[in-house]
Write a structure and sequence with these properties.
single chain, 59% helix
Length: 483
């Protein structure tokens, strides 16, 4: 059997069938890519063996990857315009069909879920129903010019050439030009491009403020010189570029889980607003620029950046699924930023300060996990598939967050009594005022999280919170006065 078809088409010459492509057309994505992501998450060691076993046959590979536990047609990013065109055709009494190069098992589930198609065509594990193979199949079923076709890519050109009318969504300019030269112009469906604002959301520019931790060494070490600030600024840029690179990869890895999340499903990649392929290219460019920026400052900073990238990658692919280990990894990522500032400027950091950073950011990481669990509990959702925490763990997570928060303040107080502080500040006693301020701040954050007033990331919340901003300014004023 060459391809699968759900039901035998009944061609009405007075009412042409509308045939719809799947990948990049009906959905804003590619099922093969998404199945690869799912396989990488669930069984990474078997991916390469699957390619070898199938002899690198694309149709066979698709059949191997079709058994994805993450696949659910309900959560796919469907294109509303294409759905509207399909419904309009059905309202006119026209038969509609889904024709895809994806595996038949996935295509059948999508067709059954939407209930908008009279039949479907798909790859069957032997033949990859794409390009000329799809053209031959549709012409055999409907005849030359006996159908309209909606596609999105150059691979659809052979099908458009034999369709009565071609529709294009997100298609390259070359496809429009080719069909224009053939005297069979395509009808373009209006579409929204990837706006700069969309990319800024994906790159998490608002998260860059976390990288301001690289300025801590010159600030604490009372060495605020023009050179130190310039070196810290370059480190800030390097960390920001690499962080954005990892955010892209992390969102690709979490694609299926994010679509099931009440707020994360609106992210650019999860919603299909940004293509995965282009996002991976941008991720690679950002990583390269970040490492080059670090190398221009100093080799120690470059080494720290490599460590930051390695730890962040480990977190994205493995550690974030290990409960408590993920929290420790997050806190270390914050501490690495401080170490990066030290490596960029050559200012040696106190062990007490690094200990405070680890404990303090462990608390914030635990608050983040608590808010995620609280959101799932309030929305009556089950346990997340990409996190090894249960909703029933909420109380324990909050308890650990409280312990870490107050231990960090204890460590901070001990730091203020250390010889390093006494030798760097003219009025070190003023620094003690920071302790009650921090006690109030962490207590307030814990209470707000308990009251469900913090959403997802406590650091982002603090950036938008006027009280937190005021307290940061007050702490900075005290430190300058102590100098």
């Amino acid at each position: 059997m060459q391809v699968a078809v759900q039901s035998k088409p009944q061609v009405n010459t007075q009412c042409r069938p509308l045939v719809v492509d799947l990948d990049g057309t009906l959905i804003k994505g590619d099922l093969l890519v998404e199945c690869l992501i799912s396989a990488f998450n669930d069984r990474p060691r078997t991916i390469f063996s699957s390619f070898l076993r199938t002899g690198w046959n694309k149709a066979a590979i698709k059949a191997e990857l079709a058994d994805s536990p993450d696949f659910d047609p309900h959560y796919l990013p469907y294109d509303d315009q294409v759905l509207s065109l399909i419904r309009a055709a059905r309202a006119e009494g026209r038969p509609t069909y889904l024709a895809s190069a994806a595996d038949a098992r996935l295509v059948s589930q999508i067709a059954d879920h939407l209930c908008l198609f009279d039949g479907w065509f798909a790859s069957d594990g032997t033949t990859n129903l794409s390009g000329r193979a799809k053209r031959d199949r549709l012409v055999a079923e409907f005849g030359e010019g006996g159908f309209d076709y909606i596609g999105n890519a150059m691979v659809d050109v052979p099908v458009w050439e034999h369709a009565a009318q071609g529709y294009a969504v997100r298609a390259p300019t070359a496809a429009f030009r080719h069909m224009q030269r053939r005297g069979r112009p395509l009808k373009a469906l209006a579409e929204e491009g990837a706006s700069p604002g969309l990319w800024l959301r994906q790159l998490r520019v608002h998260q860059y403020v976390k990288n301001a931790l690289v300025f801590v060494p010159p600030l604490i070490g009372n060495e605020i010189t023009r050179l130190a600030l310039l070196q810290s600024l370059c480190a800030f840029v390097a960390f920001s570029l690499i962080a954005s690179s990892i955010y892209i990869v992390n969102d690709i890895v979490d694609l299926h889980a994010d679509r099931r999340h009440p707020s994360k499903r609106g992210r650019p990649l999860a919603s299909g607003q940004l293509p995965i392929g282009a996002s991976l290219i941008v991720s690679g460019l950002l990583l390269t620029l970040g490492l080059l920026t670090g190398a221009m400052v100093s080799l120690p900073l470059l080494g720290v950046l490599f460590g930051y990238f390695a730890l962040t990658s480990a977190y994205s692919f493995v550690l974030k699924r290990k409960f408590l280990i993920d929290v420790l990894a997050l806190s270390l990522l914050y501490a690495v930023r401080v170490i990066g500032g030290s490596a960029a400027t050559g200012i040696v950091m106190s062990d007490w300060l690094l200990a405070f950073a680890v404990m303090f950011f462990t608390s914030l990481a635990l608050i983040k996990r608590y808010t995620e669990l609280a959101k799932r509990k309030d929305a009556d959702l089950g346990d997340a598939s990409n996190r090894n925490y249960k909703v029933s763990d909420m109380t324990m997570v909050m308890s650990m967050a409280v312990a870490s928060a107050y231990v960090s303040i204890t460590v901070l107080a001990l730091y203020f009594t250390s010889p390093a502080v006494n030798g760097s500040y003219r009025h070190p006693d003023l620094l003690w005022i920071i302790c009650p301020i921090m006690l109030y701040w962490v207590g307030r954050m814990l209470m707000l999280a308990h009251r469900r007033l913090i959403h997802d990331d406590p650091v982002v919340f603090a950036l938008r919170d006027r009280m937190s901003s005021g307290m940061v300014c007050l702490v900075l004023l005290i430190m300058f006065a102590a100098h």
